[in-house]
Amino acid sequence: REILSGQEKDWYPAVEEPLQFNALEVILADAISGVFPATQPSWYTLTADTTGDYYERNRDAQVVQKGVQTKLDQQSVDAIVKATIDYYHECYDFRSRFALFVSEMIKYGTGCGRVQMVTPGKFTYEYRDTGNYKGPAFLPYSIKSTYLDDIPALVMQEGITVAPLILRCETRLYDDLRLAIEKGGSERGWHQAEFAKLTPKKGKDRRGTVDVIIMEGDLIVPRSGDKKSLVLPNTRTMVGVASGGPATIRFQEMSEKWHSHVVGHYMRQDVDSAYGVSPLMKGWPIQEAASFVLNDVLATSRLSAMPPSTWDRNDTQMAAAGGPEIY
Description:
- Helix content is 32%, strand content 22%.
- The chain is an alpha+beta fold.
- The longest helix is centred in the last third of the chain and has 22 residues, at 284-305.
- The radius of gyration is 28 Å and the shape is extended.
- 11% of the residues are buried.
- The mean pLDDT is 80.
């Protein structure tokens, strides 16, 4: 509400009803109990690919199964792959990270995350030594700083040859980027000369930072004249936005055949939209209405119990106006 007195703290209450949080807590608990059931030792099953060259080279290898050396078969390969996945999940709090991903879908209709190779000790709050190893991890991030490719032809149609392009905006420490470029080098797509053009921010709130735009997918670069557009499939591009920029500080061709981004929806109601909807989005007017009613009740009770001023009841002009004006 706009405070007419201009003071940050005024007599009028500003209480927020916890209806949205209560709904989030219940829906999230139900969703997580369904994804990670407590009554089952494993929450997923898998079937490993045994048709590739790797399996052909190693199918005659001897493995120990219950104390007996046996050859690799489908069941043995499945057990090895599952044990490897479970090991990497235990190296960090995978379930809490996935719960954040589900929470974003419940709140905003759409959740986003990335699967990438990381050093767990760099992004976890684990007090124990996690070592310096690298492994795959699932990292959720906010849809509020992400732009999905919403071209109708890319949402749900046939005959697509160009994959969608996902844009993510974030603020990075200048020194963090500098160290990453020095360590990764040009073989990982970093451009030292372009990064040198950027100057970190000097403001009070975001001092020493650089805004970056990360694009991943099939990038199409229009060309002037009658030249065909340049199509760069399965690439990752990072553009730094700061004083001296913008500058393309990284361009990398992805070695994997899949994208590192994961996008999930609570529910999609429009076939031509890349974004989803959620009960918390639809229920926001109820939250606002309940908060307004509660504050009005509190304000009325306060004025009735402890009126801020008194006035002469015999004053006909004051009585006709219903009392003095209170701001």
